[in-house]
From TrEMBL:
The lineage of its organism: Bacteria, Bacillati, Actinomycetota, Actinomycetes, Micrococcales. InterPro entries: Metallo-B-lactamas, NDM-1-like, RibonucZ/Hydroxyglut_hydro. This is MBL fold metallo-hydrolase. Gene3D superfamilies: Ribonuclease Z/Hydroxyacylglutathione hydrolase-like. It holds the Pfam family Lactamase_B. Residues 14-217 form the Metallo-beta-lactamase domain.
Amino acid sequence: MKLGPSLHRIGSDIVAVYLVDTSEGVTVIDAGLAGQWKELTAELSAIGRSLADVRGVVLTHGDSDHIGFAERLRRDHGVPVFVHAADAARARGEESTKPEWGGMRLGATAKFLWYALTRNGLRTTPLAEVVIVDDGDVLDLPGAPRVISMPGHSPGSIAIHVPVADAVFVGDALTTRHVLTGATGPQPAPFTDDPAEALGSLRRLEGLGATWVLPGHGTPWNRGVDEAIREVEAAAAAAR
């Protein structure tokens, strides 16, 4: 799916992966589920690219539904994978957390689990090697992605601002489709380690000016960062 001149999405509102395509090559933002590999290669072919054009993968955090095919790209194609230091051990499979699931609806939860199951979500290969990033880093990758630390969902959650795409990729710092309830619109994401910290971290995006706010789960949002933050805060307040 083409969202803009340099911006593409693969996957769905359940689990999404993004591509930034510039004259310098392709940057992949998150790596979804292992079984989305075919969608990656199909989208690259559709835009006249190949795996040889992928210069790097930037992970918003180290959860299994965001690292899916990253190790395959690194191991088989020499593509470096970037992750914040605080989530490096999680991405390497050395540690995991068990955050509360919270509220759920049977149909939406079953759809999420089925989607993950049918795309090898239970067979994720951890990263054998990662490149560490920190807050404020501007990476030498297509689109010059800038790292913004967003702790809360996980200690090393980050947002990735790519001005050439007029976009900020937020991973699970927020969601526009709650995978456990099916509720739509900007709101706090489930499976969050520290919900209060995650909500506070959103303020780090204020004034960024990006039109696109792109979560790991849900419909792409194109009404600006500040409006997305306002709606997440309203949803959080309503849920108290």
